[in-house]
């Protein structure tokens, strides 16, 4: 999952981006509102974590800019402004949820997963294709009810495919889901990870669609 973090406070930004990386999210961190909008114009994210008090353009302007372009990306607003007015304004401008500073990282992660889930139209928190089930909250993966241990990147890649079983993702789609900007993408990384996943989950689980990419088959 790829996250855009928009936060000008260095300390909060450091803590949040590191915690997200520890959970194997790909994170891009920008520090002002204009850069956030420029970035969102060219790159697709699974979720935006948006501070409201930002240089150049404030968070509300960023939010309106996102929705004015009909960009449906889930937005979780991080704010210290805990007045009711601001919250109502934010929700009217298209925020999906709020978290107030100071916050616990565990709560931020839980709210982030919830907004992604709601926007993705996934009914339950656990993703499944009928054979594999993947729980984004506990990071548990089962194959026919048996627990399977995955590395962070294996989990991220599998989760990208499990969001919509049957949908094909290209190499660059998958790279985007597992690497942030400042991480070097090793050549064949996607193939290596898929090879490892097939060893753990069975060769038929992840299908290659020649010239297009990969998918997880729908089994039920
Ligand atoms: Ca700020």
* Fraction of residues in β-strands: 15-25%
Helix content: 40-55%
Output the structural class: alpha/beta
Q: Please, how many helices? A: 8
Gap from first CA to last CA: 25 Å
Sheet bearing the most strands, described? 5 strands, parallel
Which runs of at least 5 residues are low in confidence (pLDDT < 50)? none
The distinct bound ligands, ions and cofactors come out as: calcium ion
Q: Count of DSSP E strands? A: 11
Oligomer: single chain
Series of secondary-structure elements, N-terminal to C-terminal: EHEHEHEHEHEEEEHHHEE
Shape: elongated
Rg to the nearest angstrom? Answer: 18 Å
Mean pLDDT: 88
Strand line-up in the sheet with most strands: 2-1-3-4-5
Describe this structure in words.
- The protein is 41% helix and 20% strand.
- The protein has eight helices and eleven strands.
- Helix 2 packs parallel to helix 3, helix 6 packs across helix 7 and helix 6 (152-162) packs across helix 8.
- The radius of gyration is 18 Å and the shape is elongated.
- The chain starts with a strand and ends with a strand.
- The site of calcium ion has 5 residues, from loops.
């Amino acid at each position: 999952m790829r996250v855009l973090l928009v936060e000008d406070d260095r300390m909060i930004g450091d803590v949040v981006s590191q915690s997200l990386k520890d959970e194997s999210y790909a994170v891009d961190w920008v520090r002002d509102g204009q850069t956030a909008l420029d970035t969102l114009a060219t790159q697709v994210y699974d979720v935006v974590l948006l501070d409201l008090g930002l240089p150049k353009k404030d968070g509300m302007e960023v939010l309106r800019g996102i929705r004015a372009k009909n960009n449906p990306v889930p937005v979780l607003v991080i704010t210290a402004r805990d007045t009711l007015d601001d919250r109502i304004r934010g929700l009217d401008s298209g925020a999906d949820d709020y978290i107030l500073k100071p916050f616990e990282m565990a709560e931020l992660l839980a709210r982030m997963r919830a907004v992604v889930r709601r926007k993705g139209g996934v009914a339950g928190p656990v993703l499944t294709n009928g054979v594999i089930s993947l729980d984004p909250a506990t990071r548990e993966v089962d194959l026919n009810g048996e627990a399977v241990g995955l590395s962070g990147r294996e989990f991220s890649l599998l989760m990208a495919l499990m969001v919509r079983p049957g949908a094909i993702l290209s190499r660059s789609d998958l790279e985007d889901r597992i690497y942030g900007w400042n991480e070097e993408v090793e050549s064949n990384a996607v193939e290596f990870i898929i090879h490892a996943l097939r060893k753990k989950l069975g060769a038929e689980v992840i299908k290659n669609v020649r010239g297009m990419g990969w998918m997880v088959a729908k089994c039920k």
